[in-house]
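Q: Here's a chain of 367 amino acids. Please give me its 3D structure as tokens.
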Amino acid sequence: MRILRRIGVVAVAVAVVAIGLYYACNSSGHAPRDSISVVIETPYVGQGVVDGTPVILHGVKVGRVTQIVSLPGGHVRLNANLQTRPTKGLTSTLGVDFRPSNYFGVTGLNIMPGDGGQPLRNGADIKIKPKGNFALQALLYRLGELTHDVLTQRLINVIDRGTRYMDALDPLLETMITVSTTVTNVQTVSTRQLLRNATGINVALPGLMDVLIDTGDKFLKTSIGTGFNAEQDLKDNPYVASYDAGMRKQYDEGRHLLESSPDEFVYGRFKEWMRGASTDLFAKVGQLEWSHIYELFPVVEEVRTLTDVVPKLVPPADIADTLREVRTRLERMYAGSGDQRALQVRVVLDELPAVAGPLNLAIGAGR
């Protein structure tokens, strides 16, 4: 037992001496084998940089910080041990910054190779300004400043008000969804057929526009209309000879205005009519309705009652058959025999394509 006790005491003493020598060597600043020791002096260090902070190059750990010393003037000196093989080729022009070295946000000293300079050697002393502080702590600090400066009470009130305004649109959105769902449920005709029907109706639009333009042109240029024609000479207008001086002056001014600005001419021509309609017609009607608003309620209710009965009397599915039967009976009433044919309704429809197109499409008629 005494021999074993002596052997244990010796083993513990050897271990203590070995550990002491190891820490003594490390504290003396000597770099381990296959590594070099460099000194980096910077104006500042990133948050979280302490003894043992990893040194990374291209995302790979190539050393660690062994000591941090504050210098007069606010500068900081970093002692770091770098592995010889991964850092081969680095020069004294290298750059550094501070950034997370892993997914846990532990700050690391990042080294970036530079151009030119002397090869990095053991004991090199480099003075350099970091290219940035991208540590996780710095990011959180900047986010805190941004939140404090931007997310003010005024902005919060604006966001709250905008949210309440958006909530007011919920009934409208619900109505749109309900309408679209209802249309989907009751629509029995395919979209292709609806587009075909719309195309058939649009065929009549050119004819309708032509008739409207021709009507407006005749109203401006014929004697039953305004009587002004910018394309006619004065001698072609049979009414000019009977004009007095005032009428002739008004006619010349109107003719010049029609040539230079037709829109202004038409507006000026009908301005008094529009003014009279707005003041003597629509305004009076509005005053009448406003002064008898309670008397109008029974009338509106009766009209609503009558209109509610219409869909029950004329089912939508029977409208096409009813119109087809009415058209057929009208043609038979006016139809002749042989060469003596009476006037037909279809002739009138052919002269009005804006009416013939939609009506033929609705009743399924064909020529």
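Q: Can you summarize the key feature?
A: The mean pLDDT is 76.
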